[in-house]
Every structure is written in structure tokens, then in C-alpha cells.
TrEMBL record:
InterPro entries: Ribosomal_Su5_D2-typ_SF, Ribsml_uS5_D2-typ_fold_subgr, RNase_P, RNase_P_CS
Protein origin, superkingdom: Bacteria
Residues that span the membrane, as ranges: none
Molecular-function annotations in GO: 3'-tRNA processing endoribonuclease activity; ribonuclease P activity; tRNA binding
Keyword line: Endonuclease, Hydrolase, Nuclease, RNA-binding, tRNA processing
Enzyme class per UniProt: hydrolase
Record-linked SUPFAM superfamilies: Ribosomal protein S5 domain 2-like
The protein's name in its UniProt record: Ribonuclease P protein component
Origin organism lineage: Bacteria, Bacillati, Actinomycetota, Actinomycetes, Micromonosporales
């Protein structure tokens, strides 16, 4: 029902053509990077009312789990069409499983 992409700090998920030095710095940039989350809920999930309801439920679920992720992580949650009919506990269980799978070390996968 959900697909999760997790980028941890120190992993190569940033473009290489970005200058290492920012053009200008502010005091806020000197603090530790905050953990962020984003949501992708396409039109395949349903009409706008359904998509927004799914996004609100996911936002609430992720807010509870964000503190458990390392500082500076980026989490992207993509809702599949089945998320529209899923109950709140089911979405929470799927989110936990998806985050656990994203945090697991990736080795060579058998073909």
C-alpha cells in the first residue's frame, strides 16, 4: 500500500554538480539538519478529497515516527491506490514495515 524511500545523512543521494560551499550562509544553516518527510499521492489513489485525506493520515503517522529516524534524514512516502481504502492502523503497520525495509542494509539480491 505504501512505498518508502529513505535517504540517511552521509549517503550519496545528493547531486554531484552542487557546489560544496553555499553562496551565503545563515545562522539556521549552521544547526543540525532537520529530518524531513514528503508525500506522493497520485490521482490513481482517488479524487482530490480522498488524496488529501490519505495525505493527512500519512502526515500524522509519519510525525509520530520522525523522531526515530537519524537527524538529517529525508523520508519520501508514496501512497498506492489501495491506501484509499486502508484503515488507520493498517496504514501505520504498512508504514512501519516500509520504513524498516528501507533502513535494512541492502546486500546483493538473488536473481
Amino acid at each position: 500500500m505504501l512505498v518508502v524511500h529513505l535517504t540517511l545523512p552521509g549517503t550519496s543521494g545528493t547531486p554531484t554538480d552542487v557546489s560544496p560551499e553555499p553562496a551565503r550562509t545563515t545562522a539556521a544553516e549552521h544547526t543540525a539538519a532537520a529530518t524531513r518527510a514528503g508525500f506522493v499521492v497520485s490521482k490513481a489513489v482517488g479524487p482530490a478529497v480522498v488524496r488529501n485525506a490519505v495525505r493527512r493520515r500519512l502526515r500524522h503517522l509519519v510525525r509520530e515516527r520522525l523522531a526515530a529516524l537519524p537527524e538529517g534524514s529525508t523520508l519520501v512516502v508514496r501512497a498506492l491506490p489501495a491506501a484509499a481504502e486502508a484503515s488507520y492502523p493498517r496504514l501505520g503497520a504498512d508504514l512501519d514495515a516500509a520504513i524498516a525495509a528501507a533502513r535494512a542494509p541492502r546486500g546483493r539480491r538473488p536473481r
